[in-house]
Amino acid sequence: MAVKLLQFMKISGQIAAFWRFHAKATNKYKVHSPFVYDLLTEVLEDDRYFQAFGMIAQTRRELLQDNRTLQVTDYGAGSQTMGQKQRRVSEIAKNAASSEAQGQTLFRLVNFCKPSTILELGTSLGLGTLYLHHAKQSAQMISLEGCPETAKVAAEVLRTRSNNHLKLITGRFSETLPKAIEQLPTLDFVFFDGHHDGEATYQYFITCLEKARPESVFVFDDIHWSKDMEQAWQRICEHPRVRLSVETWDLGIVFFREEQRQKEHFTLVPYLWKPWVIGLF
């Protein structure tokens, strides 16, 4: 009963958050920034098919049929849809892994930004990791996962589908993040996904700032997960080093562009609203 109540409260809160988002959202015909217009057209509204998408879709189908049971160690805010600590791989693939639509958006964003280094906080089963990695296979990439058993499955997924530029590290983010940052010369592209706690997310952001460049891009998943996460996202947008912030319902993206003297924030929705957004509830 308690889990069902939490699920109801979660859904109700996200519906309210969605309508607040929709009320202030704009599309490309009302955006006057050339850079943000390109971001909309080349990332959010791009429907090109890339070869890697087929391979990752097949990997997802295989995971959805995997009935192995894992003893999940969850260091974050926990799952709102799966309350048990023992979960099947298929359930994680269905409920916790990056969706196909979000994965393709991340792929296009990496393709747009062309980073030399990529850091991911929250590997899960490795589906989102594959999208990030295959968008720029030459980039040095580290992915962090807290749960040892989930990381083992992710390692199986990545072993034959990635190259030696990608490294997977297991453990608490508070312990593995500083080590990962030491191994990367800069942080060009960081995807924060895996610890849905507002204060923790903000502190990870602050930690990563030490190696952020003016060209760096930080992406945050589930910014409307809870009021706590919404508050963390607001604090991140207000940080003095952030010159441009973009909100696309499920993702928050910040840029450190020194050439942008006036701080700006955009709440964006593609001109043709994608049906998968509704499915994020």
Descriptive overview:
The N terminus and C terminus are likely disordered. The chain contains eleven helices and ten strands. Helix 6 links the parallel strand 3 and strand 4. It is globular, with a radius of gyration of 18 Å. The protein has one domain: 3-Layer(aba) Sandwich (Rossmann fold), CATH 3.40.50. By secondary structure, the protein is of the alpha/beta class. The protein has an eight-stranded mixed sheet with strand order 5-4-3-6-7-9-8-10, with helices on both faces.
Residue share in β-strands = 15-25%
- Distance separating the two termini: 20 Å
Name the CATH class: Alpha Beta
For the record, the CATH architecture stands as 3-Layer(aba) Sandwich
User: Share of helix among residues?
Assistant: 40-55%
DSSP helix count?
11
| Overall SS class | alpha/beta
Quantity of strands, as a count: 10
The mean pLDDT is: 86
Instruction: Supply the CATH superfamily name.
Output: Vaccinia Virus protein VP39
Task: Show unreliable segments.
Answer: 1-9, 78-83, 271-281
